[in-house]
Amino acid sequence: MIHFFNGKLVSESELVISPRDLGFSRGYGVFDFLKTYPHHRPFKLREHIDRLFNSANLIGLQIPWDKEQMQKWVMTTLEANQTAEEKFIKIIISGGASDTMLPAGDPTIVVLVNEAVAYPKEHYEKGIGVIAVKHTRYTPEAKSNNYIEGVKQTQKAHKLGAVEPIYYSDTQVFEGSNSNIFAILNGKLTTSANNILEGVTRSVLLEILKLDVPVEVRDFSFDELLSATEVFLTGSGKEVTPVTLIDGQPVGSGAVGPVTQEVMRQYQAYVYSDLW
Hints:
The chain is of the alpha+beta class. The chain has two domains: 2-115, D-amino Acid Aminotransferase, Chain A, domain 1, CATH 3.30.470.10; 121-271, D-amino Acid Aminotransferase, subunit A, domain 2 (D-amino Acid Aminotransferase, Chain A, domain 2). It has helices at residues 22-25, 45-59, 67-79, 121-126, 148-159, 200-208, 222-226, 258-271, and strands spanning 2-5, 8-11, 29-37, 41-42, 87-94, 108-115, 128-134, 164-168, 173-176, 180-185, 188-191, 215-217, 231-235, 239-246, 249-250. The strands form two sheets. Strands 7, 8, 9, 10, 11, 12, 13, 14 and 15 form a nine-stranded mixed sheet that branches. The chain has a six-stranded antiparallel sheet with strand order 2-1-6-5-3-4. α5 links the parallel β7 (128-134) and β8. It is globular and about 55 Å long.
């Protein structure tokens, strides 16, 4: 695949970042991730770039380029990868090379393009298991490079036969390690309001869904989540993924519920349409 690195298109072997880069040495960076759909259209590219700039602002990372320039770089990189498969795109901006804790010049920018990998069909047909982890992400509204807890807990989840950790506190369920969470609580489709990364997939669903149940944006507790009749996660790669086990215990009947199935159907209809 061909990628974009600091102003030019490069091959995989040329994708070399200095070990002095603050993104590598200090974890100081942000990123965003999206997918293309038929005819290689990057889904909600502008919204992802808007969120990338917001993430950078939240951690104090200065971006010297404007959003239009970044959008052009993404499209140029996509056009350099002329294969039939749809693509995953990851945009990373880090603090750049420095010998101190302070940025010393322009940040590093990378646009990675890879062929999109489909999640297992069983995830959507039977649902996945998650584990619950008491954890609050640093600056949760930012999509930063700080994924230490996510990497650690995802390894634990896989050892337990689950797929992903979900984070919570004494008072609130936040999100998955790389997803937002929705639950049917007291007959309402509910998603967390605060202390989360506002996912693009989540925002699309809140805009397009037409359901027989009300949709509610509010914070809820872990005890409430355990009483949910249906739960699903959302994200650019996983799209809408049902959750049927939490810490090994079934959600509702233990099968993918009717509301989740309808949400999956409406989302698929939207992303494969000309409505965006």
